[in-house]
């Protein structure tokens, strides 16, 4: 569910997976695992991701979809 929310926000922001992966300094394969919910993000990576997406962490935990 967390990964789906990240994907939704990324798509609404018109950002590609490749762009986000590059900004996070990870591979596209590792980024795909994040969106599929197959990995746990370290706090530092989560902080970087929300900055790239231009959101607050709390937005990832809202259940409005």
Descriptive keywords:
single chain, 65 residues, mainly alpha, 5 helices, 65% helix
Structural summary, described in words:
The protein has 65 residues and is mainly alpha-helical. The protein is 65% helix and 0% strand. The chain has five helices and no strands. Helix 2 packs across helix 3. The protein is globular and about 30 Å long.
Task: Please summarize what this structure is.
With 65 residues, the chain is mainly α.
> Number of helix segments?
5
What's the multimeric state? single chain
Q: How many β-strand stretches?
A: 0
Beta-strand content estimate: under 5%
What's the overall geometry? globular
Separation of termini?
A: 10 Å
Q: In percent, how helical is the residue content?
A: 55-70%
Rg measurement, Å: 11 Å
Q: What is the averaged pLDDT score?
A: 92
Give a short account of the largest sheet: none
Task: Note poorly predicted spans.
Answer: none
Strand/helix succession = HHHHH
Describe how the helices and strands are arranged:
Blueprint: H1 2-12, H2 17-24, H3 28-35, H4 43-53, H5 57-60
């Amino acid at each position: 569910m967390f990964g789906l929310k990240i994907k939704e926000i990324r798509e609404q922001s018109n950002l590609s997976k490749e762009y986000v992966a590059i900004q996070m300094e990870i591979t596209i394969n590792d980024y795909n695992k994040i969106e599929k919910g197959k990995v746990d993000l370290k706090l530092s990576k989560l902080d970087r991701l929300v900055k790239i997406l231009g959101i607050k962490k709390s937005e990832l935990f809202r259940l409005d979809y």
